[in-house]
Design goal:
This protein has four helices and six strands; from the N terminus they run H-H-H-E-E-E-E-H-E-E. It has helices spanning 9-19, 25-46, 63-67, 109-118, and strands at 69-73, 79-83, 89-93, 96-103, 123-126, 134-138. The strands form three sheets. A two-stranded antiparallel sheet has the order 1-4. The chain has a two-stranded antiparallel sheet with strand order 2-3. Strands 5-6 form a two-stranded antiparallel sheet.
Length: 140
């Protein structure tokens, strides 16, 4: 089973534009759907036994957790410096709890629903990759 696949440049650009409110939520969702469809096709053609959505909808491996709750400052914590795809230094800021956490929505329901609607292959995904906890595996 594949975890994260590299996000296509158009999706990285769409996320940036969405976060700057330059594109609508529906336009951003359309581009996410396109990236997931392409990830499914890539894995199917490669003969992967259990396919995933490639984590295309996540800004980081933990992003779906942060987005599932109110009470986080998404980029308010300490940062990790690394080099991006162009070799330039960048810093990924970590989330920070700033108030009591309140459940907003299920972490993976949208990802799973879309994935199951797009393939008949066995499919799965991860809640948090670092723990290697799977959120679904199905043959139907």
């Amino acid at each position: 089973m594949i975890g994260s696949l590299l996000r296509p440049p158009y999706l990285a650009e769409a996320r940036r534009r969405y976060e700057q409110t330059e594109i609508s939520p529906s336009e951003f969702k359309r581009l996410e759907d396109r990236a997931v469809d392409e990830a499914l096709e890539t894995q199917t053609q490669a003969g992967i036994d259990v396919i995933t959505d490639g984590e295309m909808r996540r800004y980081a491996f933990y992003g779906h957790l942060i987005d599932s709750f109110d009470g986080f400052d998404k980029f308010g914590g300490w940062g990790i410096e690394f080099r991006d795809e162009r070799g330039e230094k960048t810093r990924l800021r970590r989330p920070l709890v700033v108030e009591k956490l309140r459940w907003r929505h299920h972490m993976c329901a949208e990802e799973w629903t879309y994935l199951r609607g797009r393939t008949s292959h066995p499919a799965g995904g991860r809640l948090l990759r670092s723990r290697k906890v799977t959120w679904g595996l199905s043959n139907a």
